Amino acid sequence: MEENFEKDNIKQNNLENNLEIKNISTIETEEPDEKPINKKVNIINFIIIGVIFIGLLFYMLIVDGIDNIINLLKSVEYKWVFAGFLCLIAHWICEAIVLHIPIKKIYKNQTFKNSFKVSMIGQLFNNVTPFSTGGQPMQAYEFSKSGKRVSDCFSAMALKFIVTQTALVTFTLIVMCFQFSFFASLMDNFLWIAITSFIVNILAIIIVIIAGIKKRAITCITTPIIKILGKIHIIKNVDKTLIKLDESIDNFGNQFKIIKSEKIMILKMFLVAIIQSIAYYSITYMVYRAFGNSGVSFWQIIPAQAFLLLIMTFIPTPGSGLGAEGGFLLIFNSIFKQGTINMSILFWRLYTFYLPIIVGCLFLIPSKKAQRKNKKTDYC
Asked: What pTM does this model have?
């Protein structure tokens, strides 16, 4: 009897351990090897991106003419173009570092090489999905292939979001205080939109923080939504989904409390995020100088670029297509030399949109070493 009882306890403990390891969030599917992003949806998104790119080229040909475009390309100062590439690479590296720091804290054997790969894959799917919704699920999926729990990864990514957005808002507000008169004159009648965008961004940070420290505040919102989705048959098994959500929120809260207590780690992430913001904003300035523009300083472009970035988060197309180009035209047209704005938009989008997609796709190609490597968990 005692032996059977002990065996039953061992089986129960093993079952609980397995459930803890496989603790997943609502975006994870039942099949661990199945990617959380639908391939058909991705194909449609890539088609939309291609159509936008071709449309932009046709627009430039109609408005500027092929002769003017060729002459403009001949006059480009390519030292600034190269500087833009360096800024883009610095932005990518900083993005990966801010992701790597909290993941490394949970998983001691995590390598920066893997963090950089996951970061670039995240940028790819952020750019090809509406509202940048595909990046984090794909990052969690990539991490899970090496044995990491999805909820742990989301905890680290939530902290990354809080730190990077806080750094972005703080840095931008400080610069804006010194350049407010220029920014207000540049934005003219759209200043209220800029203020609203900053407020929404701050609220997003607060919501994620609440998710990490107040479980009831989140479940009071998510539970009714899941039940409604169940009634309209979008979610098949409501009870199972609620259980998984409850487990994920618990794990998320536990990891979030542990990670956020690491003040030195958060400070490191914040400082790197500041450098990341500077690198990203510098791209716009490099494009500005590449086409022979002058008279507006780097520090004056920062708040305008920050406002554009906030506008892009509300555009429901992959990579904020059309909205990003239109916003750039609206904001910067008055400070760019006549005849250079359309080509500047193309170069800016190559840096901030098309290149991350191309490079991100390269990181999806599995290496021979990765194919041979067995999946091992390094959870500490």
From this structure: 0.74
